[in-house]
Records
---
Amino acid sequence: MSQNKLYVPQGYSGASHWRDARIFHRALDMARTRLLIVCCSFILAFFIIAGRLVDVSLLRGSGEANLAHSHSLQARHFRADIVDRNGELLATSLKTSSLYANARVVLDTKEAALKLTQVLPELNYNDTLHRLQSGKGFVWIARHLTPQKQAEIIRLGLPGIYFQQDERRVYPHGELFAHVLGYTNIDNQGLGGVERKFNELLLSQETPLKLSLDIRVQHVLRDELLAGIEKYSAQGGAGMIMDVRTGEIIAMISLPDFDPNQVGKMGLHKEALFNRITLGAYEMGSSFKIFNTALYIENEISSLTTKYDVSAPLRVGRFRIKDFHPAHYPLTVAEIFTESSNIGAAKMALQMGSSLQKPFFEKLGFFQPSSLEIPEIGSPLYPKQWSEPTLITASYGYGIAITPLHLVTAIGGIVNNGIMQSPTLLKVDPHKEKKGKRVVSEKTSEMMRKLLYMIVAQGRGKKARVCGYEVGGKTGTANTLNGKAYKEGSNLTSFTGAFPMSRPQYIVLIMLDRPQAIKETYGFNAAGWNSAPVAGKVIERIAPLLQVVPINEEKIVSEGNPMLIHVSAPQKGAH
């Protein structure tokens, strides 16, 4: 049979049979064609669906997926730890899991939103639903989940819900180092304090960042400061301890404070975030008499036995300068300092003049912001024209406002043989000599140390005395401004002390904001009644921790105390 001959099924014959055979073959060809079309359609549909899946999961979602990938890459380079001077952990990063969704793959957005909010009650249902219905390839759902929460979500078996490795910054000591360390945001970027200042360094290095702080001393300072604020019903306070030889800050506290672990979960009051030590500019009151007296001695204006009449208030224009504890007889320069006479300090300043005072304040750094390794640094406030009223009021701590950091740094220079060191929050290599800036001579420094010691031993700062340690210091009481006028009885009090005074190593500042008089203080709320005793308690507790060797007081009594000044008759320039 030829190839083109029509096949006639068995049992068929004749013309009609040939016609039926043609119909049969035509129907068979049509069935084959339809079958081919159906197969091609199935193949085409398969490729369309596969292409769509690739488009959704890989191509069109690549922008958001790359964002997640970048987060993952960043999480692999964990933020470096921060430790104190002894290697104790202050800040670290913990591995966590964060939840995200590919909204294009989620099948039932309402069901997914409901189940997720049941496991994570902190999520808002409507907000979660909106994210899942956004049509985006990458949307955050929740950050920093615990392993338990991650396991619960995995058990839900929700399509389009994924996890990625993340990290969370943790501060083991909570509020203790809040204003120094600062905090990070949810993406581990530093937003304050050391975390912000060294943000790039902490993200790029693996070795811990070692600070100058001592966790033991920091705890004591905060503990006693909190007790003082409560006892005297103060509205806040601040404290600082510095090594005068190196400028290392051993402890720094500003109250009220905050928990850096909870910054993202709670609304913080601005006052809690405010660092009083480095940002606040205050008129520091009688603490400035340290600089006034040091300048007087340095320039040999006269001697410590030179007397000034302080029996009557001093009139400057429409203002009257008076003493808190008036003396009705002339006082020597030494007594003016130890008795904290405003009138005497003003008369000393008038004799020196602004040509000496202003450059000296500039040398002490009072006209520019302090240098410290945190971004929260405030600027001092001072008049552009250094008039006579400024000269007078600045001698006893009014008319110029500086930060407590300025104050401690400058007093540190006065007592440290005249060498002022720049403050630092980083641990200093003990084998490397740190050069400072000379602000007064060694002779002036020695004399000022003796005067400061006498204030604590016999004068207004005696409540800061600590048995076995040579403590010296100066009280500072300044009325606070209420609008444009000073409010009597509303004080900012401070005590700045150093020890041991024969060979100064540490300087301690205690500052209380508007402390109240109590029965124990006999109705007084000046610094000698509140800030001084708090400082004494701090020194008593930290001196052994810092391995400061106590003195033999029995030997001092029997042989005489070399820190006490024995003044004789006036020398030159007495009046």
---
Amino acid sequence: MTQTTSLADFLGTTEVGRLTADQRRLIVEQALLLLEQNYALLPFKVARYGINPLQRLRLLLQRLGRDGDAELEWATHRELLEVFNSLRDLHTRYTLPQPFNGVAVFLPFLLKEFTEDGRRRYLVSRRQAGQPELDDRGFRFGVEVTHWNGVPVARAVERFAERLPGANAEARRARAVQMFTVRSLAFAAPPDEEWITLGYRGEDGQPGEIRLTWSATPIETATASSASPSADTPLGLDVEGAQLAHLRAQLFAPEALAGRPAAAGPESVPVTPELTTVFEARRVTVGGRAVGHLRIRTFLPTASGIVGFVREFARLLAVLPPDGLVLDVRGNGGGAVVASELCLQALTARPVEPEPAQFAVTSLNLRLCRSNDNLRPWLRSMEQSLESGAPYSAGIPFTEREWLEAVPQAYFGPVVLLTDARCYSATDIFAAGFQDNGIGPVLGTDGNTGAGGGNVWQLGDLIGALAGRSDGPFKPLPLGAGLSLVIRRVLRVGANAGTPLEDYGVVPDARHHTTRRDILHDDADLLTAAAGLLEKSPPRRFDVTLSEDEGSITAVFEVLGVDRADFEVDGRPRYSADLDGAGPDGAGPVEVANCGGAELVRVRGFDAGTCVALRTFVRRGDALRPLETLAD
């Protein structure tokens, strides 16, 4: 298929019965191997949902000795999809072979859910351009959809959610809304209906009805592996969600992908061109208070890599209003785990404790650790655990301490984090780290995040990890079929230490139910709620200027909400100064004697005994200069 066509026409030209019995057997055998020997969450999922995926796969293998036909092939696909969906894990999936892998189906509009009078309702949030027949029927942005093929739309969404593999009820419903009109055929069978009949309430309040046909179109088949090597750059990513996000942009916001973002208002903050699909920054005034709103749409780095990603994040923080920041990760399906955790360090003066990850202890996972230098940190505990019968290896973070130390604090004011149930994987880890490290309150439009607590690998990653070994058990699958899984599970830290992130996600500190006004007027009520949380924390400044003279360092301060500064020189505490009365007009100078030629100076700011700000200076040439984010 080279262009958009109707679903009926696509299915009419689709070849069936393309896989031999041996090829189907290979797929099932590889699925059984991965779940039994590599899947980090198998005992947890079996206990939590009362399922037996391994036995289902063994029974399926027994049935594959029969003569192959199209119906039997589809029976194999359906059983595999049901087995993997029963795990309720968006990382651990079976991907259908071609021609379904690489094709998506869609209707020419998107839905958004809101709450009104205690009921869930649904508005058309975007509509595909070039549809004059929809304009003629008054079916446009802001129209409320009431029925789907005669079923009240809230019930239709609920029934669709029941078939999806989200890790909790909130995640399944949010995913159902997200995928209600745009679906990938790589992860599910095609819709049963060729067209749907929508009931809606027009702008005049009058009921209307319209018939819409499912269309099929090619979709990018990028996987987590193609984004970056999973061992070198650990990924936590909803691959299906990332594919569909790209398709939704193609269908409903092509100007964004073409590098032509919507016209920027005076409140917008310019983003580096390469990263305009990653970050969106603006200044907003809510309740008379100027705050920053920074949206992170993905943690997948672009060509500039993780370093460029984190540097741009820090740069945007530094130019946004200092009196409060609304950090928005709603709908972010994840990306590079290290990128997400390094961004956390730019928000706090305290050392971020990264979330640790564990392997399931099996002989095959031990073999992977022995064969790959990037997995060596887990090797010793894997060997000991296999001897002792422990089910998991030690928990070891992906993000190393020295990397975090290379990220200076870039924002000093209060921060609130916006989440929803579509936050997944690396974004779950980001939200968990934000909460576990006490950076600020979490405000959720859903009761928890998507709860994807793991590092995803594809079958191709496993094959590559044992490359050059003739006795490797992993085999490529035919016709583009695929398997993915959580290779390492993630645990939380701080007050939640040891708690699995999978299934439970991050429960927000405060809840906001999306309103009609949020959808129609750019999250107006949500931003008001976020600003209310920011007002509970005082504004803060901590600007420090250093100079050197005759073996001493002199500091001049411009501070707000900071009453003490402690100096650490080359790793040793040297001086503490009270800053009572300091304000925007400056304070000091404060002189620290006998430290000429210092290579590293850290100045920590305190408020009532709590460290709230940090400025770091390193020697560059003949002068002490502020530390640059991830400088070489």
